[in-house]
Design a protein that fits this description.
7 helices, 62% helix, mainly alpha, 141 residues, Lysozyme, 2 domains
């Protein structure tokens, strides 16, 4: 692939940074990338993993920008907060005031309890249970 072809297709397709329906009604994203399942569109595992890595990096950056002390946590507990930030975004995570305060103070039992005593825990079920256990023990499942 050469740069001329890349630039030409970008110019012809145009960039749309969200899913949209093209002129034929097929779901598309980016530079004309077909994602409509009806026509066999979608992402490969490699592409989905690439997006996931970028999203995790963004969640980590949001978390550290808002709570720099998180960098001092052990990896397992830091990853709980990154996972939660990835799942709900920094805005919603910031509403977990007692949880974050307990984690910062090293009160992991209280943090785990606060995590489980939330609407988020009801919504995500086993994910919340696993992450609360990881927060409590400092060990991955």
């Amino acid at each position: 692939m050469n740069d001329h072809l890349l630039a030409q297709i970008k110019r012809h397709e145009g960039l749309v940074k969200h899913a949209y329906q093209d002129h034929l009604g097929y779901w598309t994203i980016g530079y004309g990338r077909l994602i409509d399942e009806k026509l066999g569109g979608g992402l490969s595992e490699d592409e989905a993993s690439f997006l996931l890595r970028n999203d995790i990096a963004r969640a980590y950056a949001d978390l550290i920008n808002n709570h720099p002390w998180v960098e001092d946590l052990d990896a397992a507990r830091r990853d709980v907060l990154i996972n939660m930030c990835f799942n709900m975004g920094i805005g919603r995570l910031n509403k977990f005031v007692q949880t974050l305060a307990a984690v910062r103070a090293g009160e992991y039992e209280a943090a785990a309890s606060e995590m489980l005593d939330s609407l988020w825990a009801e919504q995500v079920g086993n994910r919340a249970k696993e992450l609360a256990e990881q927060m409590l023990t400092g060990q991955y499942k």
